[in-house]
Amino acid sequence: MRVELVKLFGRRRTWVALVLLNLLPTVVAGLLAWTRLAPRPGTGPAFLSAVVADGSLFAIAALAIVLPLFLPISVAVVAGEAVAGEAQAGTLRYLLIRPVGRTRLLVRKLVAVVAFVLAAVVSVAAIGFLVGRLLLGPGTLEGGMISLSGSVLTPTDLAWRTLVAVLYVTVSMLGVAALGLFLSTLTDSPQTASLGAMAFLIGSSLLLTVDAARPVQPYLPTRYWLSFIDLYRDPVLWSNLERGAGLQVVYVVVFLAAGWANFTTRDVTS
């Protein structure tokens, strides 16, 4: 397990992905601090209209900025490379010669991808908080905030809701990770696996905008990604959060089972 983690986080491109992932929210925070022009409430990424008054909220806004596109792309790239990258480099066959079962190797790859997902989400929230406090300044509610329902959330409320939001976004990305890992077992090209995962997610996002696709929209993987903003209502609206988490569990189980079935039965020649 340690070998896979060292291999993943020892790659320069992994750190480049994390830096690029945090670059866009940082640029947005810098522009907001410079111009003090925030989107009107109800427009733009969630909470972006409130961060000018309280930079502490930029941790939440940063997640909302990267979640629709940049975060799933980075997860798809890392997951797509997990097995296919070894095959393309010609090392997969040698890994399987060792006394390590295919299931165990796949689990190690999965744990490494999950570690990247967690590192990516936590880094966006942590750097977003630091950048927001530094560039936009603390708020005037002694660390609290006005909820989407109009009531005041205490710092304790804000802390546990943000922690749950980080966990929810992480769970949302596990479906992407499982899809990318499954596709990675189908091909020797990590680019093909990553592009396949991204095409699936883009298709899901497009179908959410088509009225004719309304019957299938509750089952699309991107349907409940942004439901973490319901954590900042008072009381919390748990229904969409529960549906979103449950849907991701189904996608994770299905794609991991398919990936395991394919990887443990395929002929490995590279």
Tell me about this structure:
This protein is mostly helical and 270 residues long. It is 65% helix and 1% strand. The chain has helices spanning 2-9, 12-35, 58-66, 70-89, 92-97, 102-136, 155-184, 190-207, 238-263; strands at 145-146, 152-153. The protein has a two-stranded antiparallel sheet. The longest helix has 35 residues, at 102-136. 41% of the residues are buried. The model has no long low-confidence stretch (mean pLDDT 87).
Give the secondary structure arrangement, pairings included:
Layout: H1 2-9, H2 12-35, H3 58-66, H4 70-89, H5 92-97, H6 102-136, E1 145-146, E2 152-153, H7 155-184, H8 190-207, H9 238-263
Antiparallel strand pairs: 1-2
Helix pairs in contact: 1-6, 2-3, 2-4, 2-6, 3-6, 4-6, 4-7, 4-8, 6-7, 7-8, 7-9
Please sum up the structure shown:
The protein is mostly helical. The protein has helices at residues 2-9, 12-35, 58-66, 70-89, 92-97, 102-136, 155-184, 190-207, 238-263, and strands at residues 145-146, 152-153.
What percentage of the residues does DSSP assign to strands (E)? under 5%
Given as residue ranges, the uncertain stretches (5+ residues, pLDDT < 50) are: none
Largest sheet: 2 strands, antiparallel
Order of helices and strands: HHHHHHEEHHH
Distance between the termini: 22 Å
How many distinct helices?
A: 9
Radius of gyration, rounded? 20 Å
What structural class do the secondary elements suggest? Answer: mainly alpha
The average pLDDT is 87
DSSP helix fraction: 55-70%
| Global shape | globular
Strand order of the largest sheet: 1-2
